[in-house]
């Protein structure tokens, strides 16, 4: 048997979490370095996965298969397709930056008792989330995926509720109340989505008699598994509801601004750049593959919801006074684009959507983490408390600008490629939808540039006069991310090469062909 | 043993005249070996009573704990021995002249009950939690000894009036109510018989045998004695009420079938009347009697499992009873009662599956939703767990309704899972204390995670398991019953089930929020450091929760092998 690379990639951060949690209370720095080393080791393993993956090869590669709970028909089946590889790589890539950015976010306060070990907990929980997210990208068993989809809520919940943003306006008690509200809202929304999905997962098993993704897909393709139309629609809705909460799609998005606002910035990045991707990834892998007919049936409604997300998220972002909530609403807008790309059912749209997931992860991480550095310095999340920062801290302002420009999809930076593909894909299938979605780009320019203008330009505010520029640790976070944004902006081939074959498979599942241009044929 | 032979056991009165004088009475054949689990427990319980009478007070606690643990372990060994001899599968049969079934579900449930009782006994025997004022460490003879300073959760002298001088004297003398151990054993004996009972009279007697000691156990709390006694009276009154229903139902079914044996009644339900008793010629085969009688018996059992609308006693009794008793009762009673319910539905009334289905659906739905919704408003941790147990009864009912072998095994599995989590959770409740004893009000649990991270983390694991979060045993159990229900055509029940799970998740999460995200109060409770006894209970609970969450396969196999009722 060959080396179980996929298991190792998920197991390493899990082991890291346990080791980190076990570091004694007094050795905080040791805990941090342990966590960072484990996350870097995971990155190396993810690189190996990327290297060993053959884009033109089988659909699922590096597969592992072991019996797990025979009574439920559950197997421990792993395998990655191009989409999985891309997102696995994104996750492994971002976690070290998240850890580095959150280096001091969980240092204990003087008032804490000596037995309370927040630092160890914080780093261990992040690694735990990483392990679960990676495994969920690798799972090819519906049940295994479901378990991870639900279980990752628990460490996320403690990350949001247990480690608040120190830069909170108002009293500590008030902050704690808002934080636990945000954490509970996050958990209840996602748990409700997950439980609805549980009903659908059980229903799927009753209908299909198996949890194996490839078995079910094969049975569907060769016609041995007939699903009544209404059954398929109900099951599809059960799955889609959970993913739409996670993604998040309007009108199920309301937990995201709370969670991202109250969490520390690294955790906010973890939510939007990593964990939420599981939702859109699952739409692509599970909704389309298991329920192709129902997916086509639901497309019009989902496209409208995606459009509403794009426009609504962008409009609310324009109106925000809080930097972190602004980025949260911008993310909602971007998730609208991703869903749009997936359900446009064209290969450009789906390639674009996958690429968008990767690029959005990197660009949001860059913008949010630099915003976090800014917020930590001033101790406020309100845009109105800033002004003229670029004169005091030019490097900070510069990195912030590049993150912002990536968010508004400036050509030359990575998100442009994916957004363009999504729009082209949408336009070729549904021209009106494509046109409306373009409005989102205009609004993105508005909220990013206004944010930059209000915080960074203008006269230097008294409160930011003494603001130091980025430190080495912070530069180590910001610069590689920016380099990646530029690299993938001019040369997205490494990612698209991996993603495209997988998208072709998905297109076959839903039996859709790209609309051919009608040039002269009409005459 | 054939159905007619069983039938004749209970209908000899009508045959006496016709039989030859010498044949009036045949000595019953009792398979003592197969009844060993029950007999061991009853025997040691009787011995325990003698211990109370003859062993000096000083040595009673040790003797009783030792005897109880040995009895439960021996009984468990007997169950394992029977299962190893194949009684759970191929040689399952009916013992004791048709009174007791020795089959897979019976042995599985008996094993579960014995293990759960064992870990419960540890919490009964815990003596490190009550602080000094309840025993000054000086024996009446004036010598200082550890045994006198330590007291458990039970009243110094159950017979003394709360607040009276005799109570004070008993406390000062350092008395303890060691009678709880034989009481527990009697109760366990009843519970062992209950799911194995193969005729309605045995069922009724088992019910009383396990209920009466429980009523007493509820009344003997050391702290808040009036509340404890009130709980016991409520439990007793409502319990007697439900027993009366059960008994009346039995009478009606006897009128219907002319027998109280399960197989006999099932035969009549299937239209297979062997010989009509002349005295019952008018009533036998009358479906009205069957339906009303069946419904009344179900009512009696629904009361014991705590299904809505027969759940009213649950919160008060759970709150008032001494917490170790609550844990034991919540876990073991539920196992026994669901076992009996399963046997009744699958052996006696399978012919009624369709008639009963709307009722069962209704009860399951209101139980799931009712338990979950009302739990949200609770402010006392014990009441909260009580309502949560009601919601869980609803989930289990969904599996009962499945009416398939999968349904049986999923319910067996769920019962095993649930009982260990419950005992563990109540054991944690006994640890959180302030000056007034256990601090059960939820507001006092605020910030517990900051003060005692380990205790809070353990309790959080139990809560997550109750909530059915994946990777805990609660999820495996919930998945098993919902899958069985969906397979059995009860998809709407599954949908209601997941919605109530979502509601239920809210209040479990709320407790976790309180423990971890709230600032601790200055005058908050402290977490007492327990002896290895309670630690064992909690550790077993956590271990079972995690093992059955990650790798439930072995126990699922066990449950599905045990999934066949003998008739």
Automatic annotation (TrEMBL), chain A:
Keyword Transmembrane tagged: yes
Bilayer-crossing regions: 31-51, 83-103, 123-149, 187-214, 234-255, 297-319, 326-345, 357-375, 395-417, 429-452, 472-491
An MF annotation (GO) of this entry: NADH dehydrogenase (quinone) (non-electrogenic) activity
UniProt keyword annotation of Glycoprotein present: no
Pfam families according to UniProt: Proton_antipo_M
Class of this enzyme: oxidoreductase
Main location: membrane
Membrane topology: Multi-pass membrane protein
Keyword terms, alphabetized: Membrane, Oxidoreductase, Transmembrane, Transmembrane helix
Subcellular location(s) per record: Endomembrane system; Membrane
Domain NADH:quinone oxidoreductase/Mrp antiporter transmembrane: residue ranges: 139-443
EC code: 1.6.5.9
InterPro entries, sorted: NADH_Q_OxRdtase_chainM/4, NADH_UbQ_OxRdtase, ND/Mrp_TM
Cross-referenced NCBIfam families: NDH_I_M, PRK05846.1-4
Family the entry assigns: Belongs to the complex I subunit 4 family.
Listed name of the protein: NADH-quinone oxidoreductase subunit M
């Amino acid at each position: 048997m060959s080396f179980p690379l996929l298991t190792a990639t998920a197991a390493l951060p899990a082991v890291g979490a346990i080791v980190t949690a076990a570091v004694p209370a007094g050795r905080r720095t040791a805990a941090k370095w342990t966590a960072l080393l484990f996350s870097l080791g995971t990155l190396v393993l993810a690189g190996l996965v990327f290297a060993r993956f053959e884009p033109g090869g089988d659909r699922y590669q590096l597969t592992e298969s072991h019996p797990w709970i025979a009574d439920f028909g559950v197997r421990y089946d792993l395998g990655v397709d191009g989409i999985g590889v891309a997102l696995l790589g994104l996750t492994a890539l971002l976690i070290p930056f998240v850890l580095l950015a959150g280096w001091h976010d969980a240092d204990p306060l003087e008032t804490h008792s000596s037995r309370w070990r927040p630092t160890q907990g914080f780093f261990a929980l992040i690694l735990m989330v990483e392990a679960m997210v990676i495994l969920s990208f690798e799972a090819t068993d519906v049940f295994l995926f479901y378990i991870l989809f639900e279980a990752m809520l628990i460490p996320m919940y403690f990350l949001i509720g247990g480690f608040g943003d120190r830069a909170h306006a108002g009293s500590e008690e008030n902050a704690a109340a808002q934080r636990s509200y945000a954490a509970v809202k996050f958990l209840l929304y996602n748990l409700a989505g997950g439980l609805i999905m549980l009903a659908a997962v059980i229903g799927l098993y009753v209908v299909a008699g198996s949890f194996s993704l490839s078995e079910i897909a094969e049975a569907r393709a060769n016609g041995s598994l007939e699903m009544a139309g209404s059954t398929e629609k109900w099951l599809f809705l059960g799955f889609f509801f959970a993913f739409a909460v996670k993604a998040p799609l309007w009108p199920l998005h309301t937990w995201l601004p709370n969670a991202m606002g109250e969490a520390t910035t690294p955790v906010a990045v973890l939510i939007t750049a990593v964990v939420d991707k599981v939702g859109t990834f699952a739409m692509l892998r599970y909704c389309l593959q298991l329920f192709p007919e129902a997916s086509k049936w639901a497309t019009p409604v989902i496209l409208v919801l995606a459009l509403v997300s794009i426009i609504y998220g962008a409009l609310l972002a324009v109106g925000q006074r809080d930097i972190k909530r602004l980025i949260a609403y911008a993310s909602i807008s971007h998730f609208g684009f991703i869903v749009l790309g997936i359900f446009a059912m064209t290969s450009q749209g789906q390639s674009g959507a996958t690429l968008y997931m990767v690029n959005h992860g990197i660009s949001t991480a860059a913008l949010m983490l630099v915003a976090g550095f800014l917020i930590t310095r001033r101790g406020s999340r309100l845009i109105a408390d800033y002004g003229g920062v670029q004169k005091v801290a030019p490097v900070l302002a510069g990195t912030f600008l590049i993150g912002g420009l990536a968010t508004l999809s400036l050509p030359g930076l990575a998100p442009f490629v994916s957004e363009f593909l999504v729009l082209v894909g949408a336009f070729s299938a549904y021209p009106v939808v494509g046109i409306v979605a373009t409005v989102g780009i205009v609004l993105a320019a508005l909220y990013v540039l206004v944010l930059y203008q209000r915080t960074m330009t203008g006269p230097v505010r008294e409160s930011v006069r003494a603001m130091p520029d980025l430190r080495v640790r912070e530069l180590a976070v910001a610069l590689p991310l920016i380099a990646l944004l530029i690299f993938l902006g001019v040369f997205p081939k490494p990612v698209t090469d991996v993603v495209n074959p997988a998208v072709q498979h998905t297109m076959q599942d839903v039996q859709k062909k790209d609309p051919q241009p009608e040039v002269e044929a009409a005459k | 043993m054939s159905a007619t032979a069983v039938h004749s056991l209970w209908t000899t009165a009508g045959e006496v005249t016709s039989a030859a004088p010498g044949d009036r009475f045949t000595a019953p054949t009792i398979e003592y070996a197969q009844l060993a689990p029950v007999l061991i427990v009853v025997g040691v319980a009787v011995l325990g009573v003698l211990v109370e009478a003859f062993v000096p007070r000083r040595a009673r606690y040790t003797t009783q704990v030792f005897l109880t643990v040995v009895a439960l372990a021996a009984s468990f060994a007997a169950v394992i021995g029977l299962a190893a001899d194949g009684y759970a599968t191929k040689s399952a049969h009916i013992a004791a002249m048709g009174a007791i079934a020795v089959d897979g579900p019976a042995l599985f449930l008996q094993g579960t009950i014995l293990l759960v009782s064992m870990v419960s006994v540890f919490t009964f025997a815990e003596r490190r939690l009550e602080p000094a004022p309840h025993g000054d460490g000086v024996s009446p003879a004036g010598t200082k000894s550890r045994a006198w300073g330590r007291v458990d959760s039970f009243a110094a002298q159950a017979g003394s009036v709360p607040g009276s001088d005799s109570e004070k004297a008993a406390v000062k003398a350092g008395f303890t109510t060691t009678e709880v151990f034989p009481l527990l054993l009697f109760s366990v004996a009843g519970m062992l018989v209950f799911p194995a009972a193969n005729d309605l009279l045995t069922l009724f007697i088992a019910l009383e045998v396990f209920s009466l000691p429980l009523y007493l156990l509820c009344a003997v709390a050391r702290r808040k004695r009036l509340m404890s006694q009130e709980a016991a009276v409520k439990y007793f009154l409502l319990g007697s009420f439900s027993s009366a229903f059960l008994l009346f139902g039995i009478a009606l079914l006897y009128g219907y079938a002319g027998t109280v044996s399960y197989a006999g009644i099932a035969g009549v339900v299937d239209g297979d009347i062997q010989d009509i008793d002349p005295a019952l010629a008018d009533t036998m085969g009358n479906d009205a009697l069957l339906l009303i009688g069946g419904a009344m018996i179900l009512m009696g059992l629904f009361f014991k499992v705590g299904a809505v609308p027969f759940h009213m006693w649950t919160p008060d009794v759970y709150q008032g009873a001494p917490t170790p008793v609550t844990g034991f009762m919540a876990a073991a009673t539920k196992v026994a009662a669901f076992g009996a319910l399963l046997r009744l539905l699958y052996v006696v009334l399978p012919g009624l599956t369709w008639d009963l289905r709307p009722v069962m659906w209704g009860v399951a739905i209101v139980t799931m939703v009712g338990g979950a919704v009302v739990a949200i408003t609770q402010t006392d941790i014990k009441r909260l767990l009580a309502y949560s147990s009601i919601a869980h009864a609803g989930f289990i009912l969904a599996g009962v309704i499945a009416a398939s072998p999968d349904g049986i095994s999923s319910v067996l599995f769920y019962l095993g899972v649930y009982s260990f989590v419950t005992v563990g959770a109540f054991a944690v409740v006994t640890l959180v204390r302030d000056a007034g004893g256990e601090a059960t009000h939820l507001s006092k649990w605020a910030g517990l995670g900051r003060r005692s991270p380990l205790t809070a983390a353990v309790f959080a694991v139990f809560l997550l398991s109750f909530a059915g979060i994946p990777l805990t045993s609660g999820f495996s159990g919930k998945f098993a019953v919902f899958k069985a229900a969906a397979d059995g055509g009860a998809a709407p029940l599954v949908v209601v089930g997941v919605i109530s799970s979502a509601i239920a998740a809210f209040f479990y999460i709320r407790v976790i929020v309180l423990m971890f995200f709230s600032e601790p109060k200055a005058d908050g409770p402290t977490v007492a450091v327990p002896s290895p006894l309670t630690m064992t209970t909690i550790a077993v609970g956590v271990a079972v929760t995690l093992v059955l969450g990650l790798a439930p396969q072995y126990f699922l196999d066990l449950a599905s092998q045990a999934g066949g009722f003998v008739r």
